Every structure is written in C-alpha cells, then in structure tokens.
Amino acid sequence: MKYRHALLALAVLAVLPLASCKRTPTPEAPAPVSATGVPIDLKKETADQFVARVNAEYKAMYPELTAAQWLSSTYINDDSQLLSSKSNERFLAQLKSWIGQSKRFDGQKLSPETARAIMLLKLGTSLPPPNDPAKLTELTKIATKMEGMYGSGAYCKTEGDAKSCRQLGELEDVLRDPAASYEDQLDAWQGWHTIAQPMRKDYERFAALVNEGARDMGFADTGEMWRSGYDMSPAELSAETDRLWGQVKPLYEQLHCYARTKLEAKYPGKGSVNGLLPAHLMGNMWQQDWANRWDILQPYSDAEAGSLDVTGALERQYQADYSAKLFAKNSLADTDERVELERDAQVDIAKKMTERAQDFYTSLGMQKLPESYWQKTMFIKPRDRDVVCHASAWDMNTEGDVRTKMCIKPNEEDFTTIYHELGHVYYYLAYNKLPLIFQAGAHDGFHEAIGDTIVLAMTPNYLQSIGLVGEQQQSNEALINSQMRMALAKVAFLPFGLMIDRWRWGVFDGSIPPANYNKAWWDLKAKYQGVAPVTPRGEEFFDPGAKYHVPGNTPYTRYFLSHVLQFQFYKALCDAAGYKGPLNECSFYGNKEAGARFQAMLSKGASQPWQKTMKELTGGEKMDASAVLEYFAPLQTWLVQQNEGKTCGWQAPATTAAAAPAAKPAATPPKQG
Ligand code: X8Z
Ligand code: ZN
Predict the structure, then answer these.
(1) Is residue 146 a contact partner of residue 202, using CB atoms and an 8 Å limit?
(2) How do residues 440-473 score in pLDDT, each as one tens digit?
(3) Pick the catalytic residue: 193, 256, 424, 563?
C-alpha cells in the first residue's frame, strides 16, 4: 500500500480516514478537547505540545479508521462502504481541524522536528478535503464508491448471462496466456475497460471536489499538493521526473524496438499500430509489465540458456499439493469437496510463497511476521463476496497488527508482488516506534522501493537455491535471459510509472478538461510508452478508470521514483555486503550487514528529509538512474545489436505534446525544504 503518510496510512486509500469527534470543526473555529474530554486551551499550548497532542489523538482514532477501510476493501457492499466513507469523512474533518490549529505557529521559530511534523501534517492525505462539510461528505462517498466499482467490476460477455461474467483476475489470465488468440486477448482487454465507463462522471466530480479541497488548503490544485511531498518545490519535483526519465529513455526505446520486432513476427500485419505496441498484446492490462510475453520475448531458448520458469514451478507445487489432498480423500470427493480442497491448496501455496518472502527478510536479520499477520491476512480471493484484489499492505494499529490483502495465484508476478508488499510491512514495523506523524516513508517512492530492492536480489542463483529453477549456466545467453526477465518488469514499467500522473496532473490543473479525458490518456500512453489501442477509444470510454490507482486515488509518481531508487538501494546494499562483481549478479540474501543498513533506513521513517536518509544509505543525496543503466548495461549492448538496421522509435500523435506540462512553475511557494 501505500500511503504517503502513515498518517494515512493505510494505504488505502487515499481516502484516508480517521475518526473521533462527532463534530466537524472548521479551521476558524476549532474547539479541541483532550482524549479525556478536557477542553484544550489553545492559547497556552506550545507547538511541541500541539504536535504531541496530535500524535496522541491520531493514534487513538487510527484503528477505527483502518478497520473501516479494511472492511470495505475485503467485503464490498453498501454497509461497509457507508462505514468506510463516514470514518474517512471524520478523519479528514479532524485533519482539517488540526491543520487549522497549527496555523497559529506560522512564522514562529520551531524546533526542526516540530516544524517537520507540522509540514507533514499539511500533506497528510492525497484526498484534500473541501471546507464545505456537504462537499466533504460527497467527496468521501464518491471516493469509496469508485474504489468499490473497481473492486467489484466484471465484464459479462453475454448481457444477462451471469455465467459469462469475468472479473479482473480471469481477464488477466487471458492476457497472460500465450495460447490465447489475438481476438480473445482483445476481448479480455476491451471487456475489462467497460467497467470504467460508468466512473467518468464520478471522476469528473471527484476531481472538482479534491481541487476545491486543495485550494482550501492553499495549493493551486491537487496535483501541486501531491508534488509537494518531496522535500523540494513542486516544480523541482516535476523537473526531477523529467531528468530521470531522460536518463532511462534510450534504454526503454531499445526494449520497445526489440518487442515490436517480435510482435510483428508473431502477428503478421497486426503486431504494431503505426509503430506503437498494441495495448492488448503486451501480457498485461496496462502494458506496465511485459514479462508475461516471455513466449515471444525470450532471447535464448531454455536449451541454450537454462530455464527461468518460476511460474511453472509454482504451478507444479500447487498441483502436487492439490493432488495429494485429493488422494488423501481417496478420490471420493464430490464436486463441493473438490472445490474446498482446491481452495485449501490455493491458500497453502499462497502461504508458502509468503513464507518464502518472509525468509528473505529474516535472512537479513529482520523479525518474523507476527502470528496475527498469518491469521488476519487475506491471501486469496474469497468466493462469497467482492473484494479489492489489488495488492496492499496494512498497518492496522501501529502496534504490530500488520496485514496484506491480495488474491494470490501461483505465478511469478504474484510471487514478486508478495516480496513488494512485505517491504511495506517491514517499513511499518521498523518505524512504528516513531511518533505517528513520522510513520511514513522518507518519501512515498521509498516506501514503494523497499520490497522491490529485495526483488532485484532474487537472482537466478537465489531462485535456484530455493528450488524454483534448475541448475544455472554461466553463459552470455543465460545472462541476457536473466537481464531480459528483469527488464520486462522494470524497464517496461518506467514510462507507465510516469504517464499516469502526467494525466492526473493535467486533469487537476485543468489542461486536460473532461471532454478530453480519454484522448489525453491515449496521447500520453503513445508519447511515453509507445503503446496504442487497436480500435478507437473515444470519449464514451474512461480508460484511466480501468487502472486501480485512478479510482483508488493513489498517487503514482511514487512508483516511477521507486523504479529508480530501488536500483540505488540495491547497489548500496550490495556494497554493504562487500560484493564486488557485476551489479546484476549480486544477491545480498543472508547478509546481516546489508540487513542492518536497510533496517537503519527503515527505522528513520519520515523523521528527516529524504535526502539525509538517502545519504546515510547510499552516500548520495540525489535520485539518480545511473544504477539502472549500470545494472542493464549487458542487455542494452545486446539490444542495440539486435536492433541494428531497424528504425527504432515511434511517432506519437501530434496533439500529444499539449497534454500535462511536466515542469510548470509552481503557483504557490514551495511548501517545504
Ligand atoms: O500498486 C502496486 C502495489 C501496491 S503498492 C501492488 N504497484 C503498482 C501497480 O500495481 O500498478 C506495484 C508496482 C506498481
Ligand atoms: Zn506498494
């Protein structure tokens, strides 16, 4: 999950919640009382006392908030949504009240910790609440509703025939199936995107309401507020993302060129659209990870390079367990019993995958997950109700009740996602001892990068050591295959990580008006990813709503930054482990020195500017993609050879440039420094 601040931690939503007093105090008329009901004399309270009180009040209301959100994410219905949006509303009203109360310290000389806490408080939600109580109510309702629509979304091929309905997981299975036809993949892709059409009006209203909230809080718009959480000005953050993208773009263009050649060979006459990659053929609903197209993108055959088929190994483990369960029943199980056994086997493999991920963290010297984690986590998709399957990690009470929520299947993508989610969980556990306002990532990209740093250390040798792949060869073919495996997940992601918020920043600053929502989306996909739909996607569609983080209102720049940071962290931990070889072959599994360095970073949370935290781990103070380029140097050389003689690159539609200016001057002064 994700949260910006633990403050809201829960990932969830950005709709963060919280609750406590029944009133909705306004900034102008705060009438705070202590947790025991004693009125607080704001005139006498010092800034340090104020921050201590907010931390205490926040901690007291926090478990109710997270409980309501957990409920509405793992049991979608009208009742849970009502509780969730109400608790969110109370939290946001309380947050507003605290922010109003903090204004009396403006311009005063404060200790650095207190000044930072107040600054973080002002950025404590990605859902800025409007002052008008009726609009706040409306906003939290829409936010909860959109997330619920996404979670319960289903595409029914034959209208009125419930049996023909499929949810995201089943539609994704079609996209990742190498044996599925071009038409079936197109149908699955288009089908999923129908679930977002009804969100368009809601999103338009949502954008207007959060923008009003952002302006009420002194920001030009919601995008500017989101860009303010990086210990630099919003304009500097925009420019940073441009700079980092410029560093990695040549590598992405080579990968794009290679993938296009392979697609054109596999689908003669329809493997590309004017040089762009067809959206439904990339093995992923959003073209953010191309690893599922290993069938056509694998550089060298298994015979030449050895196998890296993690999915095959996990599926075999699952099947063996299921067969053993059936066998134990003497094969006499009726249909219902078989379904039960199947589900038992699904939970077993999901837990085994999670234990394996935990083992990596404990090998670094980190603690085992608490028993409650195993009891309260949602491991697989329930049969009897709708849930938000999108993976998330939760800190329920800041005192050890940590959980993850996923619909785990035995495949490589989910296996690595578990390592990702446990990165969030270990961050929570490490910073739980800090005051609540500091319980967040150094910035949100750090939070996203922790688990992925571990994923980079899941080298072929590591996978072999845990029995998921066979004997590894030491050959150039094996190296290129292993680099390609990582690049299809990490390099393919980079432009996607950037374009989502280019779209939202444009929506929030008005440069993308509602009448252009879908066009601007595809213009940006063309410009950054070089991806296109094969059929027209006019304004009757709302394709952004088919990606979780849009209806879920989770800012996305964090993932772009994470995909740069994780290589910096990985390199630093390899150095800490004393590793000397080529970067891409390093695994620090089992290395306690690397673990201690990592843990030291996690335990700092958001208590100091991220630049300082980064310096303590890596020695540098800037985000920088040179570790990405160092890591992929062998692959980049190989790709350039493969693409020799080809005309690489693509022409995005001419209007693209108009969308979402990246480095636009801030309309308000920097909020932090
Ligand atoms: O949303 C996630 C995580 C939860 S924070 C599963 N990720 C992004 C996505 O799925 O779009 C991880 C990588 C990018
Ligand atoms: Zn995450």
Answers:
(1) yes
(2) 999 999 999 999 999 999 999 999 999 999 998 9
(3) 424
